[in-house]
Amino acid sequence: MKSLVNTPFLILFFLLVVSQSAFASRKTINPQNPCKRMVLYYHDLLLNANGTDVDNSTSAAITNPAKLGNNYVFGKLIVFDDPVTKDQNLHSPPVAKAQGLYFYDMRTDFTAWFAFSLIFNSTEHKGILNIMGADLMMEKTRDFTVVGGTGDFFMARGIATVTTEAAEGIKYFRLKMDIKLYECY
Ligand SMILES: *[C@@H]1O[C@H](CO)[C@@H](O)[C@H](O)[C@H]1NC(C)=O
Ligand SMILES: *[C@@H]1O[C@H](CO)[C@@H](O)[C@H](O)[C@H]1NC(C)=O
Ligand SMILES: *[C@@H]1O[C@H](CO)[C@@H](O)[C@H](O)[C@H]1NC(C)=O
């Protein structure tokens, strides 16, 4: 009998606990208010097909395009070890390296998929940001996700908004990366 009397209290208690944890896990993130923001420039210098410009290259095609779709190099995969600078100048001292890959992944237009690490090893920052996302080149700006980090960027998460600022044939392109972190520890 006693336990029956207590049942409504138990239910009330249970509901309170559940609603508390539901509220606790809901965080509001203001896109306009990142905990850290960095604007950096990514420079990609692609080795030409005959490999004659090794000294002026930081990336290379690893696969040939598949014969699928006509002119959008579907399946071409590029691995890069690219300099990252604080301003638009390719020849400025790099503040980080971008190491990873992109491949072309659409049959009817130019789009690519990026996955890379931004590796910082300077007096200002030591650590890594891991970034990935769809490069929908028909859009002026694209959002990659910062999926994690180490070192100074321990457990970081956020958005890297990229814009193509310059392109010289297939040899060179520059991306402006506006990196906004919303989790900083
Ligand atoms: C190598 O290929 C590039 C185009 O990718 C061309 O401009 C250049 O003349 C070629 N060089 C030689 C030595 O064939
Ligand atoms: C390498 O290529 C880039 C892009 O085309 C160019 O701006 C730069 O001057 C070149 N550097 C050398 C040493 O040829
Ligand atoms: C970082 O820089 C230091 C000092 O220049 C160097 O000894 C170390 O090997 C570098 N680490 C990496 C991962 O590049």
From TrEMBL:
<dbReference type="GO" id="GO:0048046">
    <property type="term" value="C:apoplast"/>
</dbReference>
<comment type="function">
    <text>Dirigent proteins impart stereoselectivity on the phenoxy radical-coupling reaction, yielding optically active lignans from two molecules of coniferyl alcohol in the biosynthesis of lignans, flavonolignans, and alkaloids and thus plays a central role in plant secondary metabolism.</text>
</comment>
<keyword id="KW-0052">Apoplast</keyword>
<comment type="similarity">
    <text>Belongs to the plant dirigent protein family.</text>
</comment>
<dbReference type="InterPro" id="IPR004265">
    <property type="entry name" value="Dirigent"/>
</dbReference>
<feature type="signal peptide">
    <location>
        <begin position="1"/>
        <end position="24"/>
    </location>
</feature>
<dbReference type="InterPro" id="IPR044859">
    <property type="entry name" value="Allene_oxi_cyc_Dirigent"/>
</dbReference>
<dbReference type="Pfam" id="PF03018">
    <property type="entry name" value="Dirigent"/>
</dbReference>
<protein>
    <recommendedName>
        <fullName>Dirigent protein</fullName>
    </recommendedName>
</protein>
<keyword id="KW-0964">Secreted</keyword>
<dbReference type="GO" id="GO:0009699">
    <property type="term" value="P:phenylpropanoid biosynthetic process"/>
</dbReference>
<keyword id="KW-0732">Signal</keyword>
<comment type="subunit">
    <text>Homodimer.</text>
</comment>
